[in-house]
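Hi all, long-time lurker, first post. I run a small reading group and we've been trying to get comfortable going from sequence to structure in the token notation. Rather than ask abstract questions, I figured I'd post a concrete chain and ask someone more experienced to write out its structure so we can walk through it together at our next meeting. Sequence below, copied exactly:
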Amino acid sequence: MLENAIAACSNDNWNSESHFWYICYHTLFFLDYYLDENPDQFAPPQPFTMSEFDPANLRPYQVYTKVELTEYCEYCRSKCKSVVGKLNCQNAENRFINDYRDYSFLEILIYNLRHVQHHVGQLQLLLRQSNDTVPNWINETKLPLENQA
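-- Answer (accepted) --
Happy to help. Here is the structure in token form:
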């Protein structure tokens, strides 16, 4: 649904005062981060930066394009498939620990899902306000989950 929201946003609204592009980037950055098994060593793929951890809350120095964020979405989808495909009773209890959270890996996956859906809802609202149309609800992936275990 995030990828569909990116695709549905008009070029006029991409960098408007609603900061649609930035909400997409923020969502993808933290999706990627919360999927990482070693949060202390996390780094997003190029051309993205660690700007989301900037203590001054500064946004990235550039507006990322729809193409860049669609590619980041694909990257995160692949990472998610790998992480979920390898999930088992033992590693689900591994800890995801940073300065703000100490969750089991299963808990951080659920937190991550809630975070993404929160922002997808926000993006859907912005699309409805600007275009009076939103992409259809997607209730399941069409892509198979390959068991990586």
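A couple of things your group might point at:
The radius of gyration is 16 Å.
The chain has a mean pLDDT of 90.
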